[in-house]
């Protein structure tokens, strides 16, 4: 288990339906995939996203995307200003299937947190990878509006794996405190990046937890 969580007692749950217990989960979870990606999903008492693409797709792109996300007003509250807050993120993930037999494969399974700056003019993506394929590991670099952590090397055999992330600490490590204080959390996004690959990802018990940072006087 990846755990760099600060133990906090005053935190409250910020997101709705992280356990997929609603009769209709669609008001809280949104599925989006790149053109050319074949995909299917189901929301029962958990979320399942299956995605695949073989050949085709945009030759200029290293990979395509399949995503399931909660965003402001859609599973998340209407605003989450980061300044003065400590935020933790927890989730359970299970990889049901992977096929990366193609020589030109690319596959990455990651939980992404999107933060907006300047009223949405800039989007910063902090990504927590729990699976990277061999070609992905060779071809992944930080830069621009994207930083990442490797929080696991999960396999199908692992079954359900629980992750706990201190979002505040990990964000500040990558982007700095002033950027944190200027940001607002916009979305949490289960993401499959893929090319010439197939993956089926299962997820449950996603908890975005926030509390006030105690003021030291
Ligand atoms: Ca559940």
Task: Give a structural overview.
The chain contains 3 helices and 13 strands. By secondary structure, it is mainly beta. The strands form 2 sheets. Strands 2, 5, 6, 8, 9, 10 and 12 form a 7-stranded mixed sheet that branches. Strands 1, 3, 4, 7, 11 and 13 form a 6-stranded antiparallel sheet that branches. α1 links the parallel β9 and β10 (146-150). The radius of gyration is 17 Å and the shape is globular. 35% of the residues are buried. Bound molecules: calcium ion.
Task: Summarize the model shown.
The protein has 217 residues and is mostly beta strands.
Topology:
Blueprint: E1 12-13, E2 30-33, E3 38-43, E4 47-53, E5 64-72, E6 75-76, E7 85-99, E8 106-117, E9 122-132, H1 134-139, E10 146-150, E11 161-166, H2 167-175, H3 177-182, E12 184-195, E13 197-212
Parallel strand pairs: 5-6, 9-10
Antiparallel strand pairs: 1-13, 2-5, 3-4, 4-13, 5-12, 7-11, 7-13, 8-9, 8-12
Bound molecules: calcium ion.
Calcium ion (CA) binds at residues 19-20, 45-46, 204.
């Amino acid at each position: 288990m990846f755990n760099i969580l600060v133990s906090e007692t005053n935190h409250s749950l910020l997101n709705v339906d992280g356990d997929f217990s609603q009769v209709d989960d669609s008001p809280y979870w949104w599925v989006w995939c790149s053109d050319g990606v074949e995909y299917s999903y189901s929301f029962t008492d958990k979320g399942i996203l299956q995605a695949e693409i073989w050949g085709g797709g945009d030759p200029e792109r290293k990979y395509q995307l399949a995503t399931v996300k909660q965003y402001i007003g859609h599973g998340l509250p209407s605003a989450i200003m980061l300044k003065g807050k400590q935020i933790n993120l927890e989730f359970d993930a299970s990889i049901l299937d992977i096929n990366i037999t193609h020589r030109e494969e690319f596959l990455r399974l990651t939980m992404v947190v999107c933060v907006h700056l300047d009223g949405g003019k800039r989007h910063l993506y902090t990504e927590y990878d729990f699976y990277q394929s061999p070609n992905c590991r060779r071809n992944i670099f930080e830069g621009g509006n994207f930083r990442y952590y490797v929080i696991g090397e999960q396999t199908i055999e692992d079954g359900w794996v629980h992750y706990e992330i201190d979002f505040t600490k990990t964000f500040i490590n990558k982007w700095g405190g002033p950027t944190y204080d200027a940001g607002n959390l916009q979305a949490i996004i289960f993401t499959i990046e893929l090319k010439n690959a197939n993956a089926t990802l299962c997820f449950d018990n996603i908890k975005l937890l926030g509390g006030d940072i105690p003021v030291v006087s």
